[in-house]
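idk why but the lab printer keeps eating my pages so im just putting this in chat instead. protein + nicotinamide-adenine-dinucleotide:
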Amino acid sequence: MKNILITGGAGYIGSHTAVELIKAGYRPIIIDDLSNSQEKVLERLEEITGMKIPFYLGDCADRSLLDQIAKDHKLSGVIHFAAFKAVGESTQKPLKYYKNNVGSLVALLEFMEAHSILDLVFSSSCTVYGQPDTLPVTEDTPRKEAESPYGNTKKVCEDILVDLIKSKSDLKIISLRYFNPIGAHPSGKIGELPSGVPNNLVPFVTQTAAGIREKLTVFGDDYYTPDGSCVRDFIHVMDLADAHVKALSFLENKNTNFYDVFNVGTGNGNTVLEVIHTFEEVNDLKLNYEIGPRRPGDVVKIWADTTKINQVLGWYPKNSLADSLRDSWNWEKKLNE
Ligand SMILES: NC(=O)c1ccc[n+]([C@@H]2O[C@H](COP(=O)([O-])OP(=O)(O)OC[C@H]3O[C@@H](n4cnc5c(N)ncnc54)[C@H](O)[C@@H]3O)[C@@H](O)[C@H]2O)c1
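predcted complex ->
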């Protein structure tokens, strides 16, 4: 069994990826400082997978802790999820974001080189495209100036990886540019755990349906889109998790140093209002929502061209928007039980 270090593995996408890794025959090792997650996720993962996952509590930029992990387990690859991700906070505290998001990547790369751990999958984001001029976006669509320090950390991290591979490092690296991850494990045992007021649409939708929030506001219905609300590419977190497994196994078969980027989305754009109506329909409930003014800085529409990941990694999403929204609601209900 190959050991894969997952930084930020107690978080939303990392925890679901741990499940998919185990299903594919890997052994995940998690390091997380629990700055945006809870330790009970580890118990839940054990319930789902029947496997006790080695867990290290700490900062993934802590070299002595990383060295200890490499001593305890022979690592064959790393998936680097750990980062801060609150766009709004990043504009108030940019250094916190650069230090954690960029600093942890650099520390991790130094650690990997020192221990000859060659394979890395990095969490990037469609935020690097900003508001694109053409749709859907391919990996060759030019990246735009970042809208926030958070977005810029993803661009800077991608640039660091490009420079590293140019320098003839032995590493083999894939950046996955996630579109909008939603949904939860179908068991309802793990899912997204936003702290405070959710930044993302779907946790706001589920919390409104659960009565935690009084009302959902749709920011604008007068954009040039099918129903006037913004368009995103919503991808089920289990499909996203599977993309990491495919990326890892692709890297394992590479004999030379390597870097590439892949979009991970469904290839379809859905409007915010479509999400609301699909959520109501599939879960048979009514959502209290209102139309509000446009929100400054919102990208109007973006969705992925997924041809590259389909063809090169052989990855295709299996879940529909309705599946995702059913699983999101199932998770929210279990959270409030
Ligand atoms: N969720 C999204 O919408 C989205 C979209 C695009 C990209 N991403 C990226 O995907 C990755 C995972 O996102 P997520 O939604 O699972 O976020 P998350 O906050 O749920 O998970 C991140 C985890 O990393 C941990 N962490 C943060 N800094 C750490 C550090 N220095 N050392 C150890 N642990 C640390 C947190 O405690 C948390 O458990 C992030 O890099 C994020 O920027 C997320």
